[in-house]
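#random but structural
TW: two for the price of one
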Amino acid sequence: MEKFDRPDARLAAFGDQLLDVHDWLREELARLSDDVDAYPDGGTPPRGLRTHCLTFCTALERHHTGEDDGAFPALAARHPELAPVLDKLREDHHLVAGILRRIRELVEGLTPETGADPQEARRVRGELDGLRAIVESHFSYEERTIAGALNVMDASEWRGERPAFLRTDPVE
C-alpha cells in the first residue's frame, strides 16, 4: 500500500501529500514513456498503451483542475503573497492541457490491431518528451514554492475526503 493511500495519510501535511502525488505522476509518465518506447516506428502498439495514456492524461488533468479549483483559491485566501506563483502555475496548467489534448488526439487511433505509421509514433514520442520536460519543471517549481504553505494549512474541508489534487486512483 502506498504511503498516501494509508488511512492515516489524511493526517499528514498536505504539502507532503502533494509531493507524493507528484512522485506518483512522475512514475506513471515514465512508465507511459517506456510503453511508447516499446512501440517501434511503424510497429504495433503494445496492448494497453492507449488506455494507459488516456488514464494518465485524465489523472494529470484532474490533479491540475483540483489545484485550480480547490487548492489554489484556498492558498490565495490564506497566503495572498503567493498570487504571482499561483498565476504562473495556472499558466503552466494551460500549457500542459494543450499537450494532453494533442496526446489524446494522437493515441485515439492507436490499437494493436491497426498499428500506425512511423510518423505517428514519433509524434507521440515528441509530445510525451515535451510533456515530461514541462511537468518536471512545473512540479519542481510548485514543490519549492507552495508545498511549505500547504504543510501549515489547516483545511478541514480536505480532511474528510481526499481533494482532487491529492488523488492518485484512476477513476475516483
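TW: number two ↓
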Amino acid sequence: MIRRTDRRMQLCAALLTVNLLFIWGNSLMPASVSGTLSQWVRDLISLIFSGSSEGGQGDGLLRKLAHFGEFCCLGACLSWLTGMCMKTIMRSAGLSLACGFAAACADEALQHLSPGRAPRITDVGIDTAGVAVGIILLWAGYLIHQRTKIFGGKQT
C-alpha cells in the first residue's frame, strides 16, 4: 500500500488534526459569525468573477460547497493515514468512510452548542459525500502514480 514513514505519519496526523479543528471550529461559531464569514467569501467571489461586490440573497449553496470541500480534504487525509496502515485499498476506504461519517455526525451534533445553528441530516449526507470523493481522489491519484512509475520506467 502507501509507503509508510514516521515523517509521513506525522505530517498526515497533523493535517488531519488541523482539518478537524477547522471543521469543528466553524461548527461551534454562532450563526451570526458564520453568516458574516459566508457573506465575506460570497462578496469576494462576486468581486472576482463579476467585478461587483454586491452579493445575492442567501448563502446556502456556498455553505454546502464549503462543507463538501472541507470533508473532501478530510476523506483524503483519512485515506492517506489508513492507506499507510492497512493492506488493501478496500479496507482503507471502508475505514476512512466510516471515520468520515462519524466526523460528519459529530460536526452536526456540535451545532447544538452554537446559538442560532441546528444540525441537519442532509448536511451529514453532503459531508459524507465529500469524504467519499476525497477517498476516491486520493486512491485514484495513488494508482495513477503507481502505474506511471511502473510503465514510465521511473523508479523512485
